[in-house]
Amino acid sequence: MFMGVDIGSAASKCVIINDASEVVAQTAIPSGTGTSGPQRAADKALEEAGIGMEQVSCVIATGYGRQTFKAADGRISELSCHAKGAVWILPTVRTVIDIGGQDAKALSISEGGKLTNFVMNDKCAAGTGRFLDVMARVLEVDIRMLAELDAKADGIVPISSTCTVFAESEVISQLAKNVPVTNIVAGIHQSAAARAASLMKRVGITEPVLMTGGVANNAGVVRALQRMLGVEIRTSPYSQTAGALGAALLARERLEKE
Question: Contact, 251 vs 60, CB < 8 A?
Fold first, then answer.
């Protein structure tokens, strides 16, 4: 068994694979670096797999908080791990857009499955999971309801600001005008998609395109990005745990080389 742990700013993910590179457990805990989240994610994955830590041959940590996971046998950058996980999810993938809790990155993958280029937005939380969290709080709705509200929209209220703080003010202003919440949500998703689209255009878009990271679970953002780019954006049940999956696959490769 091989374990990958992806420790982000907002969530901790863990994937365990077997010697055939099949996923036997995957978990995501909404607590990131500096919390008990990474260990809880690992413990939950072990429980799901029905094994103990002594049965795990190699552990690779990745993500923002990878240096903090003491049980790791090695640490690898999230770029390498996300690329590896994305190719496992979709072997023909050429472009990956990963939107996490506080950053986003676009990856270009070669026909041979290698990372060839990337662009990151790690200086601002606009368009990330944190941005959506703040907007959901202002709207007083559960973040898991955003996609459902978006689907009911009969129009899109543009949220023009690229700054989370100013976008929050825009949303409050629209609420004061009694604009339907559904249309505001559609505008929020369009704003998030615009940030992702900008990164993807900078790295170059080649299909197939795969979206990873926690925001891939929000169908509203996925739809907005598809409309904006005119390409199919694929997602997977493993989208959120792609980094941890890649780390687990690299753990297996590392042991094979030793």
Answer: yes
b (16+ CB within 10 A) / e for 89-120: bbeebbbbbbbbbbbbbbbbbeeeeebeebbe
DSSP H/E element including 99: strand 95-99
- Tens digit of each residue's pLDDT (9 = 90 or more) over 167-194: 888 899 999 999 999 999 999 999 999 9
Q: In this structure, are 102 and 218 located in the same domain?
A: yes
In which domain, by residue range, is 6 found?
Answer: 1-90+240-258
Q: Which residues pair with 104 in a beta bridge?
A: 99, 121
pTM of the model: 0.90
Q: Is it true that the peptide bond before 208 is cis, omega within 30 degrees of 0?
A: yes
Number of domains in the chain: 2
Domain match, 133 and 230 both: yes
- What CATH number does the domain containing 49 carry? 3.30.420.40
pLDDT in tens, 37-95: 999 999 999 999 999 999 999 999 999 899 999 999 999 999 999 999 999 999 999 99
For β-strands 74-75 and 58-62, DSSP reports them as: parallel
